[in-house]
Amino acid sequence: MTKLTLNQASEFLGISPDLIRTWEKKKLIKSEKNHQIRLFDLELLQRVYNSWNGQSQEIGFKVLQSDQKTDLTVIELFAGCGGMALGLENSGLKTQLLVEINKDCVNTLQKNRPNWQVMQEDVSKIDFKPYQNKIDIVSGGFPCQAFSYAGKGKGFEDTRGTLFFEFARCLAEIKPKIALAENVRGLLSHQQGKTLSIMLKSLEQLGYKPSYKVISTQFLDVPQKRERVVIIAVRKDLAIPAIFPTPKNYTISLREALKNCPDSIGTKYKEQKKAIMELVPPGGNWKDLPLDIQKKYLKNSFFKGGGRTGFAKRLSWDEPCLTITCSPAQTQTERCHPDETRPLTVREYARVQTFPDDWEFTGSLTTQYKQIGNAVPVNMSYHLGKCLIAMLEKKWEHYLQLEIISNSDKKVEQLAIPGLVI
Predict the structure, then answer these.
(1) How much of the chain exceeds pLDDT 90, in percent?
(2) Which one of 10, 66, 172, 222 is most buried, counting C-beta atoms within 10 A?
(3) Domains of the chain
(4) 326 part of the active site
(5) What tens digit of pLDDT does each residue of 203-216 get?
(6) Contact yes or no for 105/371 (Cβ under 8 A)
(7) Catalytic, out of 144, 321, 336, 387
């Protein structure tokens, strides 16, 4: 697991530092800082370089599933259409209860897993005390609402009136060994970081030791550039270290993800918009349009700053998909098929979120897109589940060893390029 500085990588591959910066901006590679020096994984660089040079090697798209099952149990709040639950089940965990208020999501869960116990209810009305000390893990992707008293330093009390409070109350009543929570990356900066700070303090007050990390799904067998904040909180009476998934040294392209994708329903462009999107090449956006059309299409946004890269965006075959939203045809977050002039279909959306092809979504076309766009990518959840199993089965040596190796590799900036073998 060799790491190189920007200049070392540029010299070794025979390319400009700016090209490497472009790859990083596109989130095809990642860097880490060590004493203010940015380091890049050589194997990942080599894979991206080979693809750029027309010598790509396909990794292969698949929905990950373990043959090893456990008796470790999970209760999930805000379950949505089942992305997290399915990934945790695929890792070997046992779903005990799912709580979801949206009727279409509940119908999707029940249609695909009739054996799951699904409760359609407002989480604030549920008494979790009957499950006390009977559940290993409580998970949930709670919506990030503004806190009523954020910034007053009251911890658990600060969260009243929010859905995180209900997640915390569930922990207080069940007392699971581990809590798993995920949210958007924006949680880090929400209210200048006060929101996350209050959440962590709340978990501490409830008797848990929380750790958090930003997860980039494109490095966890998900063909999508999507970043999420993941919090793992371990009950303080347990001597268990928090373990997060180890990023892979490869990504999966949209071409691999959509190979042999089943036909399905999908939204269509109106003729005027279709004519505009016809002018955008694969991987391009509004900047590829003639100037007069740019101004007409972007309207007032044309004169605003920022990259605005989501406007009139056509996806690229050779990269992971951009983060999908609740609709593939929103003006500012366009997700147009690389070749065909149309938004991604429901099944293509599901592939990008690593749902299996037999996972059916119920409700209208609009709500199906929304369910998928709001879901936790299944393969990301699988990797999180494997970490939770390793924690509870006290088999964390492999993960800790990888962390030790990764930390030791950070000294690579002292190495010379000549003679380096890959």
Answers:
(1) 70
(2) 222
(3) 3-57 (1.10.1660.10), 73-251+378-401 (3.40.50.150), 254-374 (3.90.120.10)
(4) no
(5) 999 999 999 999 99
(6) yes
(7) 144
